[in-house]
User: Fold this.
Amino acid sequence: MGIAEEGVEICRIGEFVMKGEFVAIVEGNGLAQGLRQKGEEAVERGKRGLSGFVGLMQEDSEAGRALVDDEDILAVGLEQHKIGFPVGPVLVPIAVQAITFDLLNGGDKAWGRMPPYWELGWRAAESARSGVFEIGSVGGGFGATTANLRGGLGSASARTGSGHHVGALAVVNAVGTVTIGVRPQFWAGPYEVDAEFGGLGFPTTISADTLDLQMKGGLPPSTTIALVVTDAILTKPQAKRLATMADDGIAKAVRPAHAPMDGDTVFAVSTLARPMTNEQHDLTAIGMAAADCLARAIARGVYEAAAAPAGWAGPPSHREKFPRTSGPQP
Assistant:
């Protein structure tokens, strides 16, 4: 995972780097997706042996569309690190990209002829490391928002009964909400593990007005971008099924999900490390776990968001609106 930032502009970028042999696929059910077609096709049509970055961006306007060139910057970074698909004596770097809209969160967006994302993409690639990484107001989640709270970057993981590992990473910039009405609890509450987003529980009753539509004002494009990874050995069609099932995690955690203004996108990756013994059963369990992990990752991203920085024009963070308390809430 690699992260770079520009504080004055209130924009950051997060990337993940994958080395070695793997299978990858992309699924999208939002109508306002910001995918670079070249990279998307590379993931959809490629075979085993792909290796590359997925950059989780934060820009989706005509003025910022030029930042897709940072995908080419990432490809250069891959080449320098000797990561790519082998074709004879050369490695062909593959970089894919999904973007979110964060132009209305404050900060100096007068970039001139060179958006900061080109440099951010390079720096994030250079900083990529394995191991524990921060969540909350970091990476692609730094400038993210929801309808009522600051968004963020979240992660969660699980292990299925068959022993397969599943992990999810999410940039939460949804047009709707991840919390229940005016309460601090999360729609993803039933899937929480070890009080990872406060242990606030789930309300025993939900009033009709709580189910009313809450969304960002106007029609700003919004997106939850996610990555789910498993060590199970999957084929391309199986990876596609994993992405489809994992995408339901957005609906478990965000209300509404997959709206016309959302660009909800899920990348699914198999690291091809552990065989399945009963493919139908194991794949179903992996997909179910992926959806739960994605729901948890979305809630964690918002719960861990930091207090708003100077110049911030978006909504407050969860910790600002709901001062930290422990245990179930009414």
About this structure: The chain has one domain: 2-321.
